[in-house]
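Field log, afternoon session.

UNIT: design team B
ACTIVITY: writing a sequence onto a fixed backbone
BACKBONE:
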């Protein structure tokens, strides 16, 4: 579940932040290097055009799942045998297309009623890394094999953290994990998250048709905005960042480029969608496949929306364990993908 549905209402949908950055970059190019302006714009538009079918699929898939209320299926991941809960939480966390702010009240409620921290950790680790929209865009830019490998890594990371917590559940690290009063509501305004049953024939209900159209518009604008910025930065990277520098730091074999990719990915991540074109540019300039995988795994888990969802609910030592699982899992995923690729 990567962070997909970020815009909430008219004002948020028209937030000029990313568009302002895009306009600012183009203005600087026009001022300092006007002869490259048209080439930069052409590169960005061509890249957007190539990604357009994947954006359309992502937008429609998320809108359908939101309109039908399919997020209610998430609750089933936290029922039954603890080991089964961890596996199901990792699978659903890595595949569900719902934003971090909706997950906060859901996870808060589960923790408050005693849901195993291992299953919650599995969900938290897998959820920022992959969803149908992310898979489509990653596949279209970095290739189907990379997208599939990242999906497997997301689920495996969730299970790694979940079973790690389960095995250490009686230690001081995971004893009494909650903050005093974890928040029970999120920025989406979800009061009773993931309640009720899915309604697959959503078009028969006016409110669900509205949800479909609003969600589709929100996500189309969100993806277009961030991908435009990302492709613009990619064009600048390809033009101005020496390939030899990237190849020297993140290229080659061995564990160091992979470890560096994981350590750089954490602070450098914009969001999952913007990262895809940036990784594509880095690969073009000599970044190794293993470093690319560790970059997207570590960066996805530690990006601000995902990290805040964890920090808001648990004590710092549990949050540190979350980041530790992410770093170890990212390096392991990078090493395995390097060997395969």
């Amino acid at each position: 579940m990567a962070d997909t549905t970020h815009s909430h209402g008219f004002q948020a949908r028209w937030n000029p932040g990313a568009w302002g950055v895009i306009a600012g970059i183009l203005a600087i190019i026009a001022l300092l290097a006007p002869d490259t302006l048209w080439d930069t714009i052409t590169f960005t538009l061509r890249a957007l055009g190539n990604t357009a079918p994947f954006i359309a699929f992502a937008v429609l898939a998320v809108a359908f799942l939101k309109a039908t209320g399919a997020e209610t299926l998430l609750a089933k991941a936290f029922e039954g045998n603890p080991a089964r809960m961890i596996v199901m939480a990792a699978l659903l966390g890595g595949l569900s297309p719902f934003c971090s702010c909706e997950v906060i009240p859901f996870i808060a409620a589960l923790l408050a009623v005693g849901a195993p921290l291992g299953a919650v950790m599995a969900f938290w680790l897998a959820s920022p890394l992959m969803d149908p929209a992310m898979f489509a865009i990653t596949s279209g830019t970095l290739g189907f094999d990379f997208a599939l490998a990242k999906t497997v890594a997301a689920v495996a990371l969730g299970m790694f953290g979940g079973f790690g917590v389960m095995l250490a559940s009686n230690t001081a690290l995971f004893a009494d994990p909650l903050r005093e009063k974890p928040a029970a509501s999120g920025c989406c305004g979800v009061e009773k998250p993931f309640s009720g049953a899915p309604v697959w024939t959503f078009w028969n209900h006016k409110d669900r048709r509205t949800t479909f159209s609003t969600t589709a518009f929100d996500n189309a604008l969100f993806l277009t905005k961030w991908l435009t910025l990302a492709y613009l930065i990619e064009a600048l990277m390809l033009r101005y960042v020496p390939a030899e520098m990237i190849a020297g730091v993140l290229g080659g074999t061995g564990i160091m480029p992979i470890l560096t990719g994981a350590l750089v990915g954490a602070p450098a991540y914009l969001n999952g969608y913007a990262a895809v074109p940036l990784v594509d540019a880095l690969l073009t300039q000599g970044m190794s496949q293993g470093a690319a995988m560790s970059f997207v795994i570590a960066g996805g888990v530690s990006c601000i929306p995902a990290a805040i969802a964890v920090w808001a609910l648990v004590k710092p030592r549990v949050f540190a364990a979350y980041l530790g699982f992410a770093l170890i899992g990212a390096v392991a995923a990078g090493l395995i993908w390097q060997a395969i690729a």
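LOG NOTE: The chain has a mean pLDDT of 81.
NEXT ACTIVITY: expression trials, pending approval
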